Structures are given as structure tokens and as C-alpha cells.
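Can anyone check this?
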Amino acid sequence: MKKWKQYMWLLALVLTLGLAACNSNAEPAKETKQETKTEEVAFPVTVKDAVGDVTIEKEPTKIVSLIPSNTEIAYALGLGDKIVGVSDFDNYPEDVKNKEKIGGMEFNVEKIISLQPDVVLAHASSAHNAEEGLKQLKDAGITVIVVPNATSFNDVYASIELIGKATGKAKEAADVVQQMKQKIDAIAEKAKEVKEEATVWVEVSPAPEIYTAGKGTFMDEMLTIIHAKNAAGDQEGWPMFTEEDAVALNPDVIITTYGYYTPNAVEQVLARPAWKEVTAIKNKRVYDVNSDLVSRPGPRLVEGVEEIAKVVYPDIFK
């Protein structure tokens, strides 16, 4: 039951991000050679979040994160010791198990206030459903930063830089972004060895309600980076497909992202009677990847690209 609730929360978040993506014309991350500013932050500092300008009077010593992606970014910036509370859905890094839990989509305002944080890292994907709670936190004198939705790698870089500037970790943020860009560059360079693009069907929710990743999603950008074709690349966001329409796309590779809550996800796809003539099924090229690595807007997205590359082009990305 717990895993199912987590899945429903994740799917709701994915679809929310997808709607935002429908209004975005973000291109795959480019210009990765460009240098990122690395100036030190002097407090007080003002940042622009998803709501407007926010001023942080002094460097935070206690931080609460309301969403896993913010937590992962904070840890990557070396803020783990300052994190005093995380959501029920946080699972990375391992140290989050030692942090106070403040709830899921409906966070516990009283619990957060009791932790006496200087800053709460909220997120635009859920902020509209938590306006009253966020207002209560602000009324209690807590600075709330609403990190904008991210639907591309460039958006993620901006989120990292935002959190870095707000917490006195601008240099660390610049370093993390630069490292991500360098790794993406290396993968894209290796992908030039691809002679014939593979068509990939990405399945983020199984039958009977089959959802996939279209344009304006991390998965679509990842496939572009490794020189693969998204079977649903002409669709926007996170569209639902009938089984018949999905089969008609005849992908070379099928990637699922729900193995963490669906036992034997790959075997279930391989056993679908209506899919037996699909190229990916005939060649047994069905793979399940870690959903967090390909959908959570944080530093580990680079690992997601690497994982996708290895299953789509195993001969090139050994």
C-alpha cells in the first residue's frame, strides 16, 4: 500500500511537470562549454524563485526540504548537515533516513515550525496545493523558497544555482552544474558513434492506463542526447496511449520506469499477447530503469542518461 501511495504521488507529480512542459519550448542542453558564474554570496541576498523575489537575511543553518529533488540538490551542495527535515518520499542519499519526516504532499506545518528552520525549500509542482501551509510557514517567520518547475536540463541547472545562491553555496552550485555539463558532453560525444538511431518506447505507467514520455520531458531530452528517437516524440508532455496505438509504433527498445512498484515489470511487458510482433519484444530488448534517475530534477539525472545509453546502445556504452 505504501509503495502504491508513493507511485500515485510520483505519477501526479510527473503529470504536473508534464503540463508545465507542454508550455515549454526548451531545447536539449547546449553550450555546455560556457562558464558558470562563481561569485561568492554575501548575505543578505535576494533570489528570484517561482513566486517572486525572496530575501534571505543570513546564511541558513537549518533547512527543511519539501520534495526529494530539492533534498538531492542540497546534499550535492554539501548542505546535508544543515538539513533538519525532509519529505516522506525522500530516499536519497542514505543519510535522509536519519532526518525528521515532515509529511508528503500534505506536509505537517506544526512539525516544520518545531524544527525551527531558517529556510524551507518548497517546489512549484506542489506549491499551488499548499498555499495555505506555505503562508503559515512565512507567517511564522520562516523564509520559503519555491523552486521553479524543471522540464529540461537547463532548468535543473538553474534550480541548482538558485538553491546554491540562497544557501551560500554559489561556488559549489557552479561546480555541480559544470560537472553535469561535462558528463553530458562526454556522453553526447560518444553517441556520435551511433550509426543507426534506435526507436525507443518509454513507458512510465503500465496497462491498462499506459502513459509515456513525449516532448518537453527529461526522457525525451535524454534520448536526443544519446542519438535515439523517442517513439512518442511527436506528443507533448505525458500522453496516455491505447495498447493498439503503442504497438503500432513498433519500437526497437522498450524502457519502463515502474519496476520499483510493479514486480517483474520487464517480464510482464514481454508477455503481452498484443505486442508479440513488436521488434523490441521479438528481440527481448525490454529494460527497466530507476525512475528517480530519469524523472527527478536533480544532479543524478546525468546517471539517468548513462543508464539509458547503456541499455539502448550497449555496444557503444559498455
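Reply from J.R.: I decoded it. The CA atoms of residues 278 and 292 lie 27 Å apart.
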